[in-house]
Amino acid sequence: MHKMPTGVEGFDAITGGGLPRNRTTLLLGGPGSGKTVFALQTLVNGARQFGEPGIFVAFEENSRQILINAASFGWKLPELEKKQLLFIDAKMRPDVIKAGEFDLSGMLAGIKAEADARGARRIVFDSIDVLLTLLDDRFAERREIYRLDDWLSESGLTGIITAKSQGDDPFIAEGYGFMQFMTDCVVALKLRLVDQIALRYVQVMKYRGSGFAENEVPCIIGASGMEVADISAATVAPEASPERVSSGVERLDAMLGSGYFRGSSVLITGSAGTGKSILAGAFAEAACLRKERTLYVSFDENPSEVVRDLSSVGIRLGPHLKSGVLRMHSARAEASSAEVHLMKIKAIVREHQSRCMVVDPLSAIVKAGGALTAGRVAERLFCLAKSEGITLVSTSLMQGAQPLSEETPVQISTVADSWVHLTNISQAGERIALSASSNRAV
Predict the structure, then answer these.
(1) What are the residue ranges of helices labelled H in 70-137?
(2) pLDDT of 203
(3) What pLDDT, on a 0 to 100 scale, did the predictor assign at position 85?
């Protein structure tokens, strides 16, 4: 099976290299699911990364509107349009009157001439179902889709056809279901609302002649277009390091056997006021003093507040922030989905080349799509840290004062390499701080 890479890293990973070359792919999705974005992004990446010119045929939107809408992704489409991309408006005007029968032969002949002249290798037919409704004949609709499929096979072009599905149902509206059986690859894009948070997924439903990941995979529409979570690569971790790094607290280092393992994941839990953020801040300061580039992710608290509050207990992050060794990222948890937060963190980690990372509190992402989604994202964050060789310290807020509770809100206590639990107990009008730790190597 020869494959055409889409340039979307995570998607090419779950399909083993991209879409089937010189064959037809059906892209299904409801309104706002990202069909046009994904299809156009595939053409842009083909032109830029692989030197393959492409053609975009629009049946529903005006091509000028598509160019304007895609301007925010930074693809520089006007430059690509000059030589490598051709946009064809196939949208019927409202004043057109249909008289007699028609077929796609004439349009396909014109497109073939343009493809030969430009050396095009990829083509997108966006919202083909809009054109089919004009035929008003189920037999004619099926005939034209088979004509289009045969034309793609003979022309040597790799084709993507987009069409609408009903809500979250991956199956296209009644009457067009045959398209899923006709095409060689079927990809469904899904948009769901969970706890008032928008969540996007992509699922490869069919791929003739090739293996693929069958499960739904999270995706987002970000600053550079659609991004698909690379769940296959996230599980690959480098060799475990025997080196220890300081937690920033001498006696905690002694409890853990000289500190945390480099490249390990550490979970610090406890109720409010037990000192979780202090331990996280101490680790960040110790890493910066070792001149290790460190990322501090703070949910629901801006960086200046974090620096001010930690300075009151002798933890000085301000100088490291100014030098660039420390990078701070703050976000409101419920402002985006947990997947969006994860992909932003991933981008910052690679840009900053971080060696150490703090996430405070990790439990806040429960507000960004529910506990189940948050747990999966947290696990992938731990996998990301391991694959990048990053020492990760995350905090999690727990309800109650049980010193050794076996469950965290995001349910990742068993995934962490080291678990430190903090608690306060009031006795005779005084508060007693207790800590318990678990380290797999101790």
Answers:
(1) 77-83, 105-118, 128-135
(2) 92
(3) 92
> Which pairs with CB-CB distance under 8 Å and at least 24 residues apart come from 205-213?
205/170, 205/180, 206/180, 207/15, 207/20, 208/20, 208/23, 208/184, 209/1, 209/20, 209/184, 210/1, 210/3, 210/15, 210/16, 210/20, 211/16, 212/14, 212/15, 212/16, 213/14, 213/15
- How confident is the model at residue 138, as a pLDDT? 76
Tokens for 86, please give them. 């051709």
Residue with tokens 């990829």: 122
112: number of Cβ within 10 Å: 15
- Nearest C-alpha neighbor of 155 from the set 4, 6, 3, 23: 23
User: Domains in the chain and their CATH numbers?
Assistant: 3-231 (3.40.50.300), 235-439 (3.40.50.300)
Residues 410 and 400: their CA atoms lie apart, in Å, by 16
How far is residue 7's CA from residue 46's CA, in Å, rounded to a whole number?
Answer: 7
Token pair for 413: 């206590």
Return the ∠ at Cα 264 (arms to 261 and 269), rounded to 5°: 105
pLDDT value of residue 442:
41
Residue spans of the chain under pLDDT 50: 234-235, 401-404, 432, 441-442
pLDDT computed for residue 40 by the predictor: 95
Alpha helices in 50-104 (DSSP H): 63-69, 77-83
Contacts of 312 (CB under 8 A, 6+ apart): none
CA distance 346 to 393: 15
Q: What is the DSSP letter of 191?
A: E
With beta carbons less than 8 A apart as the criterion, state whether 26 and 186 touch.
yes
Query: In this structure, what token pair is assigned to residue 344?
Result: 């932003």
Closest C-alpha among 391, 70, 365 to residue 218: 365
pLDDT for 403 equals 46
Coil, helix or strand at residue 290? coil
Reported residue count of the chain is 442
Residue 405: phi and psi, rounded to 5, are: -65, 140
